Amino acid sequence: MKSDAMKEKNLINQYSITSFGIPLTTRHGIAKEMAEMINFSYLVSSMGLQKYLESVFYDSVSCCCSFKFLPLFENFSQASEAIKACALESIGQFDWFDSLHHGNVD
Predict the structure, then answer these.
(1) Which residues make Cβ contacts (< 8 Å) with residue 41, sequence separation at least 6?
(2) Closest C-alpha among 84, 82, 83 to residue 99
(3) What are the tens digits of pLDDT across the range 8-29?
């Protein structure tokens, strides 16, 4: 079991930021979760796809990231597949339209 001091080393003070125009939030300020979301936002914005996302939320309790899309966003579109590929490259575990996926993150 980690000591309180060790636990605090994994925490950040900023639980919510906007990165590349996408609001990002981690429930308990876990640094690794925020790093994954920042990397994801970079990948998505480099493809010009940030316009489809309202926000990204990492639930520190379930260790699962979720995405809130704009109302007219459709799963199985080209944009959807490109955003999912960005998530697979950068997010450890995420919910994708009610299906759990694991990314290529150490």
Answers:
(1) 19, 20, 21, 22, 24, 50, 56
(2) 84
(3) 667 888 889 999 999 999 999 9
